[in-house]
């Protein structure tokens, strides 16, 4: 037990707290979350996570600081919740994903307007663009699963339903609600959320235009290689972080 407690207090978690806090600010800047709604977490071990919590001086996700990221166990309990701190009501989204999928190291839950419109309008994202955003196109190529219930996922049973709908995908559209994304790092899960938002926004915009372009052809798909995680995730993450910190306008907006 002493070894486990010492591990949980390891200073290396300061960097992880900072990543989770930064992800929250990025999501707010990119328009995927608004006000106090939405949360990001990172797995610490098989029984603990760092998660964005709400404290007595809550200011919204755009102002998230490392101090807003609290260590809790999978039951939503922990010493760091003293002083009026509360875990997200939808903590089961995070906990049950960690329990069900050992490869998942970080989870994002957000409420992009495009997700709301796509889900309620019954629009299916398709791989209709290519080099504009290859990772977003590949999300469509793999298929974006949907969880059909517009409920707050406050119970493990509801989270299990969402996870069943999500399957082995890295993203899920929650109809009438928002999105959940998972990754092997906070950076990956966040970039996936941003890419999913690009895909959903383009889907809504095309529907508004009455346009139904064809899927990218197999021949053109062959010309769209995987540029690797450094290009698709690490460099994109750096750009997103700098954009949020510098106040540069967010990325493409179709709505």
Could you outline the blueprint of secondary structure elements for this entry?
Layout: H1 2-8, H2 12-29, E1 39-45, E2 48-52, E3 69-73, H3 91-100, E4 106-110, H4 113-121, H5 134-142, E5 146-147, H6 156-166, E6 171-174, E7 178-183, H7 186-209, H8 218-221, H9 229-246
Condensed summary:
With 255 residues, the chain is an alpha+beta fold. It contains nine helices and seven strands.
Task: Explain what the structure shows.
The model is unreliable at 1-8 (pLDDT under 50). 41% of the residues are buried. The protein has a single domain (2-243), classed as L-fuculose-1-phosphate Aldolase, CATH 3.40.225.10. The protein has nine helices and seven strands, in the order ααβββαβααβαββααα. Helix 2 packs parallel to helix 7 (186-209), helix 3 packs across helix 6 (156-166) and helix 4 crosses helix 7. Strand 1 (39-45) and strand 2 form a beta hairpin. The chain is globular, with a radius of gyration of 18 Å. The longest helix is centred in the last third of the chain and has 24 residues, at 186-209. It is of the alpha+beta class and 255 residues long. It has a seven-stranded mixed β-sheet, with helices on both faces. The protein starts with a helix and ends in a 9-residue tail after the last helix. Helix content is 43%, strand content 13%.
Summary keywords:
255 residues; alpha+beta; L-fuculose-1-phosphate Aldolase; seven-stranded mixed beta sheet; 43% helix; disordered N terminus
């Amino acid at each position: 037990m002493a070894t486990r407690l010492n591990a949980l207090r390891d200073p290396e978690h300061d960097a992880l707290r900072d990543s989770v806090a930064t992800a929250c600010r990025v999501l707010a800047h990119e328009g995927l979350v608004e006000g106090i709604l939405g949360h990001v977490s990172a797995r610490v071990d098989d029984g603990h996570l760092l998660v964005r919590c709400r404290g007595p001086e809550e200011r919204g996700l755009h102002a998230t600081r490392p101090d807003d990221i609290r260590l809790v166990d999978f039951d939503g309990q922990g010493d760091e919740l003293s002083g009026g701190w509360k875990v997200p009501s939808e903590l089961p989204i995070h906990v049950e994903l960690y329990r069900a999928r050992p490869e998942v190291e970080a989870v994002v839950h957000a409420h992009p307007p495009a997700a709301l419109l796509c889900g309620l309008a019954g629009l299916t994202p398709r791989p209709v663009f290519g080099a504009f955003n290859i990772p977003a196109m590949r999300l469509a190529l793999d298929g974006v699963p949907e969880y059909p219930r517009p409920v707050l996922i406050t119970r493990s049973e509801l989270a299990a339903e969402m996870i069943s709908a999500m399957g082995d995908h890295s993203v899920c559209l929650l109809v009438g609600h928002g999105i959940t994304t998972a990754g092997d790092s906070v950076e990956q899960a966040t970039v996936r959320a941003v890419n999913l938002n690009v895909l959903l926004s383009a889907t809504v915009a095309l529907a508004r235009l009455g346009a139904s372009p064809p899927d990218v052809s197999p021949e053109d798909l062959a010309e769209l290689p995987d540029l690797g995680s450094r290009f698709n995730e690490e460099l994109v993450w750096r750009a997103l972080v700098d954009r949020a910190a510098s106040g540069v306008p967010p990325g493409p907006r179709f709505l």
